[in-house]
Amino acid sequence: MDFIKIVVIFFYWTQLKYLIIGQTFDEISHLESKLKNYSPDLNPKLNQKDPVDVSIMAYITAILDYNEVSGILQPVVSYVLTWKDEIRRWNSSEYGNVTSINLPITNTWIPKISIMNMVRQKSIFMYHNEIEIRRSLVNYQANGSAEFHVSGAQDITCSSDMKYFPFDSHACSIQLYPEYANGNVVLKPEINTFDLRYAESNTEWSITANSVDGEVDPNVFSMVRFNITLSRNPSFLFLNLVLPIVLLSFANLLVFCIPVASGERGSLAFTILLTFIVFITMVTEILPACKPISYFNIFLEVQLFCSVLIAFCTVWSISLHYKFAENDTQSIFLHFLLKLSCAYNNSCSKQQRKDKKNLVVPPRGSTGKHFNETCVDKTPQLQMEQELHEDIKSVDKNTKDNHQYCLKCIDSICFGIFLTILCIQLSVYGIKVFYRP
């Protein structure tokens, strides 16, 4: 029994000593020298005609920026490339039980992967100096499995879709392909989604969907597409751009509520018109010149056009006010407006009199003043002059009332028309944005 214990202890001690002492500098240096002797320009296949299957996986660590006007997305992406090397493998027991080793990329084979829709340089290997290149290593296992990590910030082209601004979403993709002829390298996705475990949040954009797909033709071409959907966080733009424009559109209607005689109607109308022009300039800097046009841009342009019409109506109502003050109503159009407003006023008065027909009015009592007026002896000439003066005053008063009523009718009609247009616009814009397909 003691003999068996001694044998077991001796066996474990020798194995532990082999593991600790076996992986010496000499053993690893010898293995590294052997693996570096292979040409880095040859495919890691015993049969050079066989394609190399390279699996790729991507991590998004951050979205630095997305410029909708230029259509450039700047993500920070890390790629993990894995493949099987049939040349660079070894028996670990012959090299001190070494199961893995790292080799510089300058001394070994790595796949050359490019990004099809990249703005500047095409390669995913973005090194800034020689030290970074020398410290970039490929990890090899004893069975020939190779793994290589590369990361960096990239400028990717991504078309903008501003149709639902500021609730817009944009579909972007990173299109990778191997730069080898005759399909010597076949690029395949390792998983069908992006890995977002290490992604940092962006204040303006968030990734709402992602997928990975590929096209593989072993004899010709292969490609892997990493697709993401960027959605804007609309709170800031809604509070600082959309809401002020909507409130300004309602404030524009207050022009027709200000009396013409105050002299402030024209200044308010033109001030709001200039404010709309400032907002148009701001939106032009934000939105790109692309199709389809944003619904918000259409809404703003229509409101600008309505503001121009309101300015015209304001100037016209002011000119009517002064023409009526001078009794300059010889124009056919002005005469028509007065007749139309008078007819409408008379119809309203008749309706009011009909409503008051059934009211019982008590007989007017004879007061002392009335008795004295009836008993006063007036000369016929004085009485005629007084009646003529009262008729002139009555005609002037009726004319002035008709002019005022005509101006009020015009203001009411303009207010109703532009309010209806604004409500229809807001309804259509809300339906298009919040019930989009």
How would you sum up this structure in a few lines?
Keywords: Membrane, Transmembrane, Transmembrane helix. The protein has 437 residues and is an alpha+beta fold.
Explain what this protein looks like in three dimensions:
This protein is an alpha+beta fold. The chain folds into two domains: 35-233, Acetylcholine Binding Protein, Chain: A (Distorted Sandwich); 236-344 and 394-434, Methane Monooxygenase Hydroxylase, Chain G, domain 1 (Up-down Bundle), CATH 1.20.58. The chain is built from nine helices and eleven strands. It has helices spanning 2-22, 25-36, 130-134, 235-252, 265-286, 295-325, 332-355, 368-375, 380-434; strands at residues 52-67, 72-84, 100-104, 113-115, 137-141, 145-153, 156-157, 169-178, 185-189, 205-217, 221-232. Strands 1, 2, 3, 5, 6, 7 and 9 form a seven-stranded mixed β-sheet that branches. Strands 4-8-11-10 form a four-stranded antiparallel β-sheet, with no helix packed on it. A hairpin with a 4-residue loop joins strand 1 (52-67) and strand 2 (72-84). Helix 5 (265-286) runs antiparallel to helix 6, helix 6 packs antiparallel against helix 9 (380-434) and helix 7 (332-355) packs across helix 9. The longest helix is centred in the last third of the chain and has 55 residues, at 380-434. The chain is rod-shaped, with a radius of gyration of 43 Å. Residues 7-22, 348-353, 365-378 and 386-397 have low confidence and may be disordered.
